Amino acid sequence: MKNYRLTTMSVVLLVLVCVLPVFAQSKGSIEYEGKKSSWNGYEKYDFALDGIPCYVVAPKECEPGKPWVLRARFPNYHADIDVKLLEAGYHIAFINVANLYGGPEACKRWSKMYEHMIDKYDLNAKVVLEGVSRGGLIVYNWAKRNPDKVASIYCDTPVCDIRSWPGGKGQGRGSDADWERCMKAYGLTEETAGEFTGNPIDGLDELAKAGVPVMHVVSESDTVVPPDENTRVLQKRYRELDGPILVLSIDEGTKVSHGHHFPLTSVVVDTAVDFILRYGPKD
Asked: Which residues form the signal peptide (predicted)?
């Protein structure tokens, strides 16, 4: 039986929601746009912003205050958490930022999605940010630019330093193809990447000053995104700035994923959902 333990107070996000409309009336008088389908028993609406694929999953009943999650990458991974949030009246939103590694173009897309959700659907001005693995890059890079717009952050084994992954410059396995694309996304070279200060671990001052709660879940056996090069560095720096952060540690991930992924348990789901509901957007 795996051993789960909570370490240091800290809060996060993750996540991800939004409300969207395809000329269909429902969910607290919100009119959704896009192609309607079903996602885990909830209505999903696919649409595009400037040609970029997006979607929103709508709750059956919208919670007062219209809370929502903006999810980064791999939106169907460990989806049990988002299903629980839908049950609680949250919207879940997503815009494609694949192969942008949280760089300037990814942040531009997230800002466009955020404004679309707020202006068109009147969702809460503060959003929960949710990210998995490389999704941590866009979560933090957007959050640091927009601390006043973030309710909380939840991340699952997040990349917090591109030199660790995809760079593979430390303990991690790295990915040569992803590293080339990542450097291109940031306009970096092998020479300049070593001094890069635009990682999630950098420039956390304004996020901490805003008191944004953060929660991470990490796998101790992760050799793809080693916690000591990623979450633990961010955790230490955020705590030094008096930022609230909680880290849930899983002893061992799956062998096939080199420890990076782990089976989702009720401990993780309940802790993450409780965290997001506690620190999510209010009326």
From this structure: 1-24
Report the distance separating Cα 181 and Cα 179, nearest Å. 5
pLDDT at residue 258, as a whole number: 75
pLDDT band per the 50, 70, 90 thresholds, residue 255: confident
Find tokens 């300037």 and name the residue.
Answer: 104
123: CB partners within 8 A, 6+ apart: 17, 18, 19, 66, 67, 68, 91, 117
The Cα 144–Cα 113 span in angstroms is 17
The Cα 210–Cα 206 span in angstroms is: 6
- Token digits of residue 238: 């955020």
What's the whole-model pTM score? Answer: 0.87
Percent share of the chain, pLDDT over 70: 89
* Chain segment 139-178, per-residue pLDDT in tens: 999 999 999 999 999 999 999 999 999 999 999 899 999 9
Q: How far is CA 131 from CA 54, 163, 190, 194, 210, in A?
A: 16, 19, 26, 24, 20
Query: How many residues does the structure list for the chain?
Result: 283
Domains, the chain, ordered by start = 4-279 (3.40.50.1820)
